[in-house]
Specification:
By secondary structure, the protein is of the alpha/beta class. It is about 45% helix and about 15% strand. Helix 1 crosses helix 7 and helix 5 runs antiparallel to helix 6. The structure holds guanosine-5'-monophosphate (5GP). The site of guanosine-5'-monophosphate has 16 residues, from strand 4, strand 5 and helix 4.
């Protein structure tokens, strides 16, 4: 699942996991610093640049992208393990990463979580209060580009209400399983 920063991916994912505890949520590695409430190994695995370089060179990442001056990526091994055990894996990644997953994993179901509007996205990013003005405006500029990319996703879910959006994502995952 991808979508602009601030669209509420994290909240939708948490609601979804409460309903579908069998889903495996991928924990990304990132070179960015933890935010105050974030825990290493839970929200992300926080690594130094050198460690990230090593993982890229060793082909340890299913996908990775440079995002606002840092790099984040999906460790491949846990995903392979989960999929081969017949479970589904949920990736919360950016649009560039979703493009790589599409190319590498043709059976992946790509879901774009969209804000009701760019204005609403700006309001949410501001209320989150984790970014200064400059970072905020970079995230909004990128969001405009990301919104255009939603055209090539398998599904677009508008996050106007967390419970409703989570229901829709759960239904999409359920239908995809039934097709296997
Ligand atoms: P944040 O820094 O706010 O946690 O995340 C910024 C963006 O990076 C979000 O759009 C988030 O989905 C994305 N992101 C987090 N982990 C990964 C990852 O492993 N790969 C990619 N491509 N994007 C990620």
């Amino acid at each position: 699942m991808a979508g602009p920063s601030g669209v509420g991916k994290g909240t939708v994912v948490r609601t979804l996991l409460a309903r579908r505890p069998d889903l495996y949520l991928s924990i990304s590695v990132t070179t960015r610093r933890p935010r105050p409430a974030e825990r290493d190994g839970v929200d992300y695995v926080f690594v130094a640049d050198e460690e990230f370089d090593r993982m890229v060179a060793a082909d340890d990442l299913l996908e990775w992208a440079e995002i606002f001056g840092h790099r984040s990526g999906t460790p491949a091994e846990p995903i392979e393990r989960v999929l081969s055990s017949g479970r589904d894996a949920l990736l919360e990644i950016d649009v560039q990463g979703a493009g790589i997953v599409r190319a590498k994993v043709p059976e992946a179901v790509l879901i774009f979580l969209a804000p009701p509007s760019i204005e609403e996205l700006e309001r949410r990013l501001r209320s989150r209060g984790t970014e200064d003005e400059e970072k905020l405006s970079r995230r909004l500029t990128k969001a405009g580009w990301e919104m255009e990319q939603r055209a090539w996703f398998d599904h677009v879910v508008v996050n106007d209400d967390v419970a409703r959006a989570s229901d829709q994502v759960a239904a999409i995952i359920g239908r995809s399983r039934a097709r296997d």
